[in-house]
Amino acid sequence: MARHTTVSIPVELGEKIKKRIEGTGFRSVSDYTTYVLRQIVSSAEMREKSKGFKKEDHDEIKRRLKALDYI
Amino acid sequence: MIFVTKLLVIGVDGATWKVIKPNLDSLPVFKKLCGEGKSGTIVLPEGEAVISPAIWTTMFSGVPGSKHGHEKYVKDGKLQSRDDIPVEFCWDKIPDKIVALQVPFVIPPFNWNCDYMPPGFGASKDEAELRQDVEGITAKAKEILASSPECAIVCYNHLDRVQHFHWGEDEYVLEWYKLVDSAIGEFVDKAEKVIVISDHGFCGVGEARDKTLPDVAADGQRLKGDHHEEAIIITKGLDCEIKQPGDVYRAIMEMFG
Ligand SMILES: [Zn+2]
Questions:
Q1: Which domain holds residue A21?
Q2: pTM of this prediction?
Q3: Distance from the CA of B13 to the center of ligand 1, in angstroms?
Q4: How far from the centroid of its chain's Cα atoms is residue A37's Cα?
Q5: Mean pLDDT, to the nearest integer, of B87-93?
Q6: Between chains, do B121 and A60 touch, taking CB under 8 Å as contact?
Q7: Residue B238 forms part of a structural domain
Q8: Cis link prior to B108 (omega < 30° from 0)?
Q9: Domain range spanning residue B104?
Q10: pLDDT tens sequence across B9-44
Q11: How far is CA A38 from the centre of its chain?
């Protein structure tokens, strides 16, 4: 079971989310908020990771793939 | 025995019954799995490209190749990354429940909830590097399973590399199957349900439904094996049947989604 922490959001936003998730698979405002935040954080992480991947690495991989003829 | 890991998917790129079936006595783990579970052949649908990036993408997104369009590791001179592929994978939908190690729909192969960088970026045909990678993936897989994820995905792509250049050298190829067989044996019993699957099989150049490769590699080495449209499937404890690669995605979503 994942551990949780509390985050505050404006009441108005909370109400809007409540309406938004009616009839969807999200069980609560927390569920929905976690989902949205996770998407944002993981795509940011992904971008950072691919930045950490050097241009020389890309060239080396392409060279190796060419030798395997998968290009 | 109570398992925390409900499902373990082991992907073996390029594994074919043509090598496994006649050599089951030399492949004890495959033999045991075939005995305990159900085994069969997946015939990839006509019109779908019999190439690794496309099929692995389909396997874990449920989206057919004709729709996702991801066929090459490098497109228009650009090395493709996860962001270039317009699908939602099972791990995007249930991010906390899955750990995925070295899924070869991109190069370097893709990891989810774990870190691993293969020697040669996973694009090697060097024998020492390939061996080192089998060991590295196996050690990492054991570590992953010790952390008890609900669903674990572990892929090996070495047989593909070896068979392209050594298809027909039966003893040499079998040695690599033995290596993968014993690697899998180190962790296959750590999950309740198991799927072992290949993305495609193998055959001699000219024997495949769709020829996927040239006769000679860019560096002049002759290619001896090509992708065959028949892939392997073994399931243990699974309620549903895997008839096509996309059924793996559906099985995962049914269990955890
Ligand atoms: Zn493949």
A1: 11-67
A2: 0.84
A3: 5
A4: 7
A5: 96
A6: yes
A7: no
A8: yes
A9: 5-227+250-256
A10: 999 999 999 999 999 999 999 999 999 999 999 999
A11: 5
